[in-house]
């Protein structure tokens, strides 16, 4: 386990890396897109313009974010959320100020402050060590916390897609289940990041359109205005927006996909794809009584 200070390349907040995860990243793109190298002419995609998927392994980090920066960024950072699965434990656990950051978005920096990051868990997880570089090391509490909640912390798949120079990234997390009167409901949390790769042409997110398929055989359509009560504008000043939401299914698995309707400044609209992503449950062999 290692720790170091960083600045987020996109959102600009200060943070400290706690530990890494290795995720499979699935990139979907159109062979005609100029945001990624074109596919060879011999591939099926270059002939029919269907979407190809590139899968690669990428390092992501679990991080603590500086609470002083939270009011000034356009991102929800509450990445650890799960249900207590025991019959006697009916709580929803969540810690604000946690995030998952890809290696490419990390800009390391140094500080001589004894507590360089303001977060309620900083002193519980880390202790000062003047001989170390940086000047703090993980406590045993952080190691045991990570081991105890590995099931809820670890991300496995990340899905990305680019449409009209707008990149959408989705990371799903299984939260647990609830049973009542013989019916079990499974819950997932998903984090979505939307980036304008050409911020000289601003767009505003006006509508969302979701398709939700459950293993039970149901297909649900959901439409709504904006996302989480916002209609974010992606411009040169603020090219990205990140938010989280939740979904429940009566089946242990399913998948989701959809589109965002974006408006340009000239009043025209574009449709941006939300890449398909799987919803898979995880079995919990341990007794999750508390988060901290």
Automatic annotation (TrEMBL):
Lineage of producing organism = Eukaryota, Metazoa, Spiralia, Gnathifera, Rotifera
* Signal peptide (UniProt feature, chain positions): none
Output the GO biological process annotations, alphabetical, semicolon-separated. error-free translesion synthesis
> Taking every annotated instance into account, which residue ranges of this chain make up the domain ApaG?
160-286
**Mind naming one GO cellular-component term on file for this protein?**
nucleus
Q: Which InterPro entries match?
A: ApaG_domain, ApaG_sf, Hemimethylated_DNA-bd_dom
Q: Which Gene3D superfamilies match?
A: ApaG domain (2.60.40.1470)
Q: What is this protein called?
A: ApaG domain-containing protein
Name the Gene Ontology molecular function terms of this record: DNA binding
- SMART domains linked to this entry: YccV-like
